[in-house]
Automatic annotation (TrEMBL):
<dbReference type="InterPro" id="IPR013785">
    <property type="entry name" value="Aldolase_TIM"/>
</dbReference>
<feature type="domain" description="N-(5'phosphoribosyl) anthranilate isomerase (PRAI)">
    <location>
        <begin position="4"/>
        <end position="198"/>
    </location>
</feature>
<dbReference type="InterPro" id="IPR001240">
    <property type="entry name" value="PRAI_dom"/>
</dbReference>
<keyword id="KW-0413">Isomerase</keyword>
<dbReference type="Pfam" id="PF00697">
    <property type="entry name" value="PRAI"/>
</dbReference>
<keyword id="KW-0028">Amino-acid biosynthesis</keyword>
<dbReference type="GO" id="GO:0000162">
    <property type="term" value="P:L-tryptophan biosynthetic process"/>
</dbReference>
<protein>
    <recommendedName>
        <fullName>N-(5'-phosphoribosyl)anthranilate isomerase</fullName>
        <ecNumber>5.3.1.24</ecNumber>
    </recommendedName>
</protein>
<dbReference type="InterPro" id="IPR011060">
    <property type="entry name" value="RibuloseP-bd_barrel"/>
</dbReference>
<keyword id="KW-0822">Tryptophan biosynthesis</keyword>
<dbReference type="InterPro" id="IPR044643">
    <property type="entry name" value="TrpF_fam"/>
</dbReference>
<keyword id="KW-0057">Aromatic amino acid biosynthesis</keyword>
<comment type="pathway">
    <text>Amino-acid biosynthesis; L-tryptophan biosynthesis; L-tryptophan from chorismate: step 3/5.</text>
</comment>
<dbReference type="GO" id="GO:0004640">
    <property type="term" value="F:phosphoribosylanthranilate isomerase activity"/>
</dbReference>
<comment type="similarity">
    <text>Belongs to the TrpF family.</text>
</comment>
Amino acid sequence: MTQIKICGLKYRPDIEVAVEQGADMIGFVFAASKRQVTPDQARILARDIPETVKKVGVFVNESPAEINRIAAMVPLDIVQCHGQETSADLALINHPTIKAFPVKAGRMEGDITAYPDSLILLDAPATQFEGGSGETFDWEALGKTELPNDRLIVAGGLNAGNVGVAIQQFHPFAVDISSGVETNGTKDPEKIIAFIQKVRGAEENEL
């Protein structure tokens, strides 16, 4: 079953909708972003999230020591690194990791083989902030044979209208969405519900 990560959540009602509808991962952004939360805010929001739903913290070029401090405080289940972190950096993190790679002009920037123990997230190149632009990357141009499907997370410009195609193209471990479930920059419960339903529907079609 394709895992679903709803990222950039800041408010309890949105988290409750995502959890009730069957999201597998909830993402808190600690890096500079309009979706940024403080560790204290995330700690409060995380209190009522069931253990079956993984809490993911998104960081950009933060020190492993600070990541470990925040991860223990919230607490987080998974750490997502969305900058230029090295495999040596990730080895110092006390939690399972996701390493993000931008895809530009059909080419992945970076060496995923250097991160054999991390989930691999593919995203469109950043614009104003690191951590994605809300745009899709060229799914067709990217070579699929080199991708570790069992560790692959597809992000970047996903929405209820195209996530089924993404699943058919990549057969990923997970899909990750943030701006695609927003209206005017704010999380939209109806879009969260529609996205999760589309993912589950696409899985049924794959069977």
